[in-house]
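Field notebook, page 356. I keep forgetting to write these up properly, so this time I am using the form the group agreed on. The chain and the ligand, protoporphyrin IX containing FE, are recorded exactly as supplied. Prediction of the bound pose follows.
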Amino acid sequence: MTSRRRLLAASAAMAAGAGGLTAVGATALRNGSSERQENEPAHLRGAAPLPFAQFISFDITSEGARADALHAAHRAIAAIDGGSVAAWLALGEGAFTSGADKPRYLKRMPSFVGDVLDPVQSHGDLLLHITGSSARAVRQAAGQTLHALPRQQVRWRANGTRLETRTEAGRGLSRNPFHFTEGHGNPATAAETAERANVRAGRGEPSWAVGGSYQVIRIIRLATDFWNRDTVHEQERITGRRRNGRWLDGTPSSERAAFATDPHGKITPLDAHVRRAAPNPRTPPPMVRRSYNYDRGSDDQGLIFSCFQSDLEKGFEAVQRRLQGEAMAKYTLTTGGGYFFVPPPGDAWLRALTQK
Ligand code: HEM
């Protein structure tokens, strides 16, 4: 382990021991759109996600409590979703008793090369993801939800913020803790977003799951102090885009890269983040990223990476494997998160999973 990674690991352990995650400070944020349309899933509503979020992971306390827990969580989410809040429920593999019901790729998130997963902030049977136009709206909705679920055990909680959140050319953009713009690689239309994120019929998934989506959360601690010591030029070569999103060869941010004319990585290094993530610009990875920054103080800050996909293996897992050995790896440490499945809108899925 390099000294940077050792330092990240040590301070992650300290932060976990100090009692977990606290609310982040908010600066100059603009609201995203929370327009609610009939049957539009909350997790994909609007081009830009709402700027504040809280992730709450629960464990179902006993097998007998499973159906009750699912009903109570569904009711609690329905009560807060709408207006300045978009909220949804996602199911971990522990929410399923029968293999036949379980979405085909859903499993406990494995530890990837370089991860130091802390059990205190990893996995969970249920995930409530609450987003809102203000920290206050999210806090209130989270309080209301926890009040409605007194019998469930909170496993971990995390607060996130999207800085400088805005929409450009149909894409929701924000600024990550490394000062780089995030979101250019996401789809620009609702149709393409649904195409990448939603499970379709005929793909070997249980019928209740059609229209739902796999959600991956990765709590990634970022060594911002080390990063900030590098020049912007070095940072841009590690990322493979300029801070504002423009490609290193000058191609505008909203267009796809032209790596074919740079086969040896003279302009965009072969181990740059975006080049590893999406080596073939014609076939962008089938995933939709909607991450949040976190800041727990004491230099513990990073990304609550969150993405949605219809196929966990072709989406997140394929990209994560390609990122192994990327130039950015020495500045990052994944300490938590989990694999979840967001059920489709409505409550037919709930009946299918609980009326047996
Ligand atoms: C370690 C923290 C990370 C940072 C700081 C980071 C940062 C960035 C930035 C700045 C971009 C370019 C702008 C954009 O398209 O959004 C980007 C693109 C991307 N990242 Fe990351 N990222 C991180 C982790 C991840 C992870 C864990 C994955 C998935 C396993 C991932 C997948 C992608 C993909 C698919 C793209 C778009 C590539 C394209 O289609 O051009 N990133 N990331």
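OBSERVATIONS:
- The longest helix spans residues 3-17.
- Confidence is low (pLDDT under 50) at residues 11-35.
FOLLOW-UP: compare against the apo run.
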